Amino acid sequence: MRDDEKYLLELMRRHVSGYLKIAPEHTSERVLGAMRKTPVYPLEKFAERFERNKRALGKKMYILPYLMSCHPGCSQSDMSGLRATMLSIFGSIPEQVQAFIPLPMTLSSVQFYTGVDPLTGDEVFVERDGAKRRMQHAVLTKKGPENRH
Known about the structure:
149 residues, alpha/beta, Transcription Regulator spoIIAA, 3-stranded parallel sheet, 12% strand
C-alpha cells in the first residue's frame, strides 16, 4: 500500500467477490503495542483508497474489519475510541468482535496473568473484572442507547 496502489486495485479486481476481510483488531497504539502490532498503513487512508477503487471498478464491495476487545492494555476509553473510529471510517460497527481469551504459550496470556510485558518488564493494564470486560465488549456489540455516542 505504501509503495503502489495498483496492488489494492489488483486484489479488488481479481480476488474480492464482495467483502474484503481485514484485521486491524484495534486502533489504540497502546493496545496494538501490547499485541506486538505496529500500524502498517493508516486505516482511514486504506478505506478511502478502497472506496475510490470500488467506484472505479463499478463493483459492490465492502470492508469487513475484525476487532478485539478486552486485550491486555485495553481500557474502556480505548474501546470507546475504537467505536468512534469505526463509526467515523465505516459509518457502522462491524459485528465481528472477539473478546480476548488468554491462550497458552502466548505473550498476551503472560501479560493477562502477570500484568507485565515479558519482553520489556513494563506494567500492562489488564481488565480482569468480568462485568467490566463485558462492558468493554458491549461498546461494540450492543445496539442500545448507551452506545449512540
